[in-house]
Amino acid sequence: QVQLVESGGGLVQPGGSLRLSCAASRSIFSFDFMGWYRQAPGKQRELVATITSGGTATYGRSVQGRFTISRDTAKNTVYLQMNSLKSEDTAVYYCKANPSGVTFAYWGQGTQVTVSS
């Protein structure tokens, strides 16, 4: 069983920044990719950003140019740096990890991000 522990959420004003962390309980090289998804009230969960085991990053259209996904392989941790935050970025942010060779995925418990003045 893999555990993904997210942290770093909170309340921030529009235009501000936050950095989310997702710490995995085993080597992140065991996953084909890891990523961040978000879900706002009344909306479907959507892709924010992913990073492959090889380090290739992909972003959702609404966050491109503002958010950056990165990783620290020594700490088995993936980060999401969020800049120029907007009210529409308010959501619960979830970390996801897709293990190699299987069809299921692991999810974290989620961390709330609220952008409001």
Note the topology.
Elements: E1 4-7, E2 10-12, E3 18-24, E4 31-39, E5 46-52, E6 57-59, E7 67-72, E8 77-82, E9 91-99, E10 106-107, E11 111-115
Explain this structure.
The chain is globular, with a radius of gyration of 13 Å. The chain is built from no helices and eleven strands. The chain has 117 residues and is an all-beta fold. The strands form two sheets. Strands 2, 4, 5, 6, 9, 10 and 11 form a seven-stranded mixed sheet that branches. Strands 1-3-8-7 form a four-stranded antiparallel sheet, with no helix packed on it. β7 and β8 (77-82) form a beta hairpin.
Features:
7-stranded mixed beta sheet, mainly beta, 117 residues, 0% helix
Averaging pLDDT over every residue, what do you get?
96
The number of helical elements comes to: 0
- Main sheet summary: 7 strands, mixed
Helices and strands: which structural class? Answer: mainly beta
Roughly what percent helix? under 10%
Which parts are unreliable, with pLDDT below 50 for 5 consecutive residues or more?
none
Query: Between the first and last Cα atoms, what is the distance in angstroms?
Result: 40 Å
